[in-house]
Amino acid sequence: MIFVINEQNPQKRLIQKTRQVLEEGGVIIYPTDTVYAYGCDINDRRAIERIYHIKKIARNKPLSFVFSEIGELHEYARNISDRAFKTMKKALPGPYTFVFKASRLVPKIAISQQKTIGVRIPDNNVAREIVRALGRPIISASVSTADGEYIIEPDDLGKVYRNEVDLVIDCGPKISEPSTVVDFSEGDMRIIRKGKGELFFAPE
Fold this sequence. Notes:
By secondary structure, the protein is of the alpha/beta class.
């Protein structure tokens, strides 16, 4: 199934149908402000396992959590310092993933070996509207080949993954560059992957 959704003004009917797919345990491919990503309901263990299977990655590989508002992060991420919060306030929504210690609300299957999670608020109306409609974060992982190449054309996504996922959301081609990953889990700021966007950090 493929939905063509307007990024600037997402059709509410299609957003609600996407929510229904997620609530029924489906896995979707949806747009972010960087590349296309797999997504599923944070509360559905089988759907999370499907993402690991489709992406062909080990269970100890961390997945990201996509939110619609910065105020939602405190339920799932622990020890967010003032500096981290101010940095996120300036950077989000945007092409950044911030890493923190995971709270008890985070499903164990989605936590890294370091007990951390990556949190994202993409600068993409469709992604954020999906989260708002669902009422909780979605688990996310970028769509890439075994060679690490990103698939950025919706037509290609439909052809390659139509038997792997329940829904592909077509919002046109995306850039083949991932988010910048910033780790605050140990208190100090550490950039562990440089991706799209320039990030200016709040002073200590």
